[in-house]
Amino acid sequence: MIRRKNILLVAILFLVVFVVTTNYLLYWLPRQSDVTITIEENIYLELKKLPIYYKINEAEIDDVGTLLKKINIVNITHAYNGIEKLWKLADTWPNKTQIVDIHSPQLGDILSLLSQAKIVKADLDHRGTQLKLLLTLEGGQQVIFKPKWYEIERVLEGPVYVGKDRYNSEIIGFYLSLILKKPLCPLSVIRQVSLRQDILPVATRRLIETSFTKNNRTCIYGKCFFCSINDPVCDDEHSILEGAVILNIKASLINHRSPWQRTYKKDKNAIWQEYSDSYCDIVKSKISKKRLYDLIDVSVFDFLIQNGDRHHYETFEETVLWLDNGKGLGNPYKHHLDILAPLYQCCMMRKTMYNNLLHLRGGRLVEQLRKIPNINKLITSEHLKAVDERLLIIFATIEYCKKSKKGKI
Ligand SMILES: *[C@@H]1O[C@H](CO)[C@@H](O)[C@H](O)[C@H]1NC(C)=O
Ligand SMILES: *[C@@H]1O[C@H](CO)[C@@H](O)[C@H](O)[C@H]1NC(C)=O
Ligand SMILES: *[C@@H]1O[C@H](CO)[C@@H](O)[C@H](O)[C@H]1NC(C)=O
Asked: Residue limits of the FAM20 C-terminal domain (predicted)?
């Protein structure tokens, strides 16, 4: 009798252990439905056996490179005549296909003015969640000033949207858009200002109210979601603050929510992350084909610099603009593949974009980037190397798409 009870007990114990371990295993083993993981793995498999075709550097006529070399940012030492005319010229550029005329002989002059024209008014810019200034330059042109928070060598760990805006990401983004033959980023230049000498004397009251002096340095902290008096930007010991000056586009833009918006919560996936395989069908039912192609173009651009925070986007005459590119260049050792979700979920790409990318294979993309004025102040060689690796990952994604049933590329 006692023995039988023991056997029963042992049997029950076995059963419990069995149920617990199987559940544990089922929970932790990769699930079949976890499509995102499978797609990423597939792309990395393609990367390993990427055809040599994607790595050749053909000597071709290098039109963009020639244009980049011609962009001359010069010192404006004299009073510049016709400054208003130049601003007006830039205002005429935006149309359905571009917001910058890369062929304009005045491009260099306008960039020079952006980096040096006298600041006649300074205000807070309330758009977005980070500290930005809205400056008015001589001749009436409004520009956005994004201050430098980090040295370019600084590596930011964490989620793709971690940290503050990187001013250099805006500037590299602008030139990258030219290199990709999609001039859809606003003009951006590096600029040194002095809060003490250039900004405060022409600042609005509400900007002055967020300024203070500490150790004889002038600081401002602004008014925005992430702004705090404990987190100011300040002039350095030479009374200089560096940052990016970005041309404020005069056209009226329409703001849209991105279909690939993140939840910004660690434990909560967005629908596009949850249903990776079928999500594109949902998007296709809601937006036009042109819009979708536009968003896929942007995802390629964003992936190259790892600008992974595009929760919203703006359109001008139905074309998606590439605005707000400050979250790139955070970590050269990390490639957040899900920035490419529009590409690998839809497996579509414009032929022109595909050809433009092919022209940049075999190291040409980095060759072009090296022609950017002041490039060494803007990007490290680690980041340049990373951009080159990411181009190969984009080609691997295209190979994945060709082989998957979705394949339309
Ligand atoms: C412009 O002036 C600055 C400082 O005066 C100097 O460092 C820089 O080399 C000059 N740039 C050009 C293109 O002359
Ligand atoms: C936009 O402007 C450029 C240069 O001015 C021109 O070449 C191009 O054809 C224009 N595109 C459209 C769609 O109007
Ligand atoms: C504070 O800085 C200004 C300009 O940078 C300088 O002229 C002044 O001498 C400094 N004052 C002190 C007390 O260091």
From this structure: 214-406
CA of 404 relative to ligand 2 center, distance in Å: 36
- Which domain does 292 fall in, by range? 39-61+252-404
Q: Is 375 exposed, middle or buried (0-12, 13-18, 19+ CB in 10 A)?
A: middle
Per-residue pLDDT of 269-300, as tens digits, reads 999 999 888 999 999 999 999 999 999 999 99
Domain co-membership, 138 together with 234 = yes
Q: What angle do CA 86, 87, 90 make, to 5 degrees?
A: 90
Across the chain, what does the average pLDDT equal? 91
| Partners of 199 in beta bridges | none
Residues near ligand 3 with C-beta < 6 Å? 216, 239
pTM summary value: 0.88
* Radius of gyration for the alpha carbons in the chain, expressed in angstroms and rounded: 25
Where a domain ends, among 222, 247, 272? Answer: 247
Interatomic CA distance for residues 274 and 267, integer angstroms: 12
Does 98 sit in the ligand 2 pocket, CB within 6 Å? yes
Q: What is the dihedral of CA 192, 194, 198, 199, to 10 degrees?
A: 100
Beta bridge partners of 121: 136
Cα dihedral value 280, 283, 287, 292, nearest 10:
-40
Instruction: Kindly list the distances between the CA atom of residue 294 and the CA atoms of 113, 210, 398, in Å, as whole numbers in the listed order.
Output: 31, 39, 17
pLDDT per position as a tens digit, 21-66: 666 555 555 454 444 557 999 999 999 999 999 999 876 777 788 8
Q: Which of 125, 309, 338, 388 is catalytic?
A: 309
What's the 216 CA to ligand 3 centre distance in angstroms?
6
- Quickly tell me which residue has 């992350």 as its tokens: 273
Question: Count of domains in the chain?
Answer: 2
Residue 198 annotated to the active site: no
Q: Does residue 30 sit within a domain?
A: no
Q: 296 and 180 in one domain? A: no
How many of the other CB atoms lie within 10 Å of CB of 176?
A: 24
If asked whether residues 259 and 240 sit together in one domain, one would say no
269 lines ligand 2 (CB under 6 A): no
Same domain, 270 and 400: yes
